[in-house]
Amino acid sequence: MHRVAIAAGNRTQVAFSIVDKDGYSGAGPLSPQCPLEASYGSAEEEHDQEGRVTVAQRDAFVLLTAHVPHAGGGLINLKYCQRWDETFCKFLKGLASHKPLVLCADLNMAHEEIALCNPKGSEKNAGFTPQEQQGFRKPLQAMPLNDSFRHLYPNMAYAYTSWTYMTNTQS
């Protein structure tokens, strides 16, 4: 875990995970105040080697940032993602049992059609398959997590919250 100031004289703090593999995963919050405590990982070695989780303890809540693994083309990483889902769900439950939990994450999947520009054309693509959706829903069913954007804008059209890098959909 590293904590740095963004610029000289700037009081913004960042705590982020570092892994051995350059340009791989990583997650971290930016905050105007230092957290009471910052840690990384979920205590599961298989996942923690990739720097996917950072936890920042605050007075009133726990802020968790995460970079959830992607199933990959042809769902080559699906089994790993399913193991991640199980571990991550237990980890979230543990954190939420002490304080309210705020989760900010790249979830690498869309759980509703409204999140995608072309949901019908994405049904067999990584990030929107039934297998991934099932794994994604477990944490949502296990505790009261809400999609804050869809809570505020439940029917906003053309406000896509899931983009794939694989088909250049952001351009």
TrEMBL record:
Protein name (database record): Uncharacterized protein
Described function: Initiates repair of AP sites in DNA by catalyzing hydrolytic incision of the phosphodiester backbone immediately adjacent to the damage, generating a single-strand break with 5'-deoxyribose phosphate and 3'-hydroxyl ends.
Main localization (coarse): nucleus
Gene Ontology terms: cellular component: mitochondrion; nucleus
Sections of the chain in a coiled coil: none
Organism: Cervus elaphus hippelaphus
Location within or outside the cell: Nucleus; Cytoplasm; Mitochondrion
Positions bearing the site annotation: Transition state stabilizer: 108
Keywords: Cytoplasm, DNA damage, DNA repair, DNA-binding, Endonuclease, Hydrolase, Magnesium, Manganese, Metal-binding, Mitochondrion, Nuclease, Nucleus
GO MF term set: DNA binding; DNA-(apurinic or apyrimidinic site) endonuclease activity; double-stranded DNA 3'-5' DNA exonuclease activity; metal ion binding; phosphoric diester hydrolase activity
Family under the similarity heading: Belongs to the DNA repair enzymes AP/ExoA family.
Obligatory cofactor(s): Mg(2+); Mn(2+)
Entry's cofactor comment: Probably binds two magnesium or manganese ions per subunit.
One GO term of the biological process aspect: base-excision repair
PANTHER family listed in its UniProt record: AP ENDONUCLEASE, DNA-(APURINIC OR APYRIMIDINIC SITE) ENDONUCLEASE
Binding site for Mg(2+): 106, 108
SUPFAM superfamilies (alphabetical): DNase I-like (SSF56219)
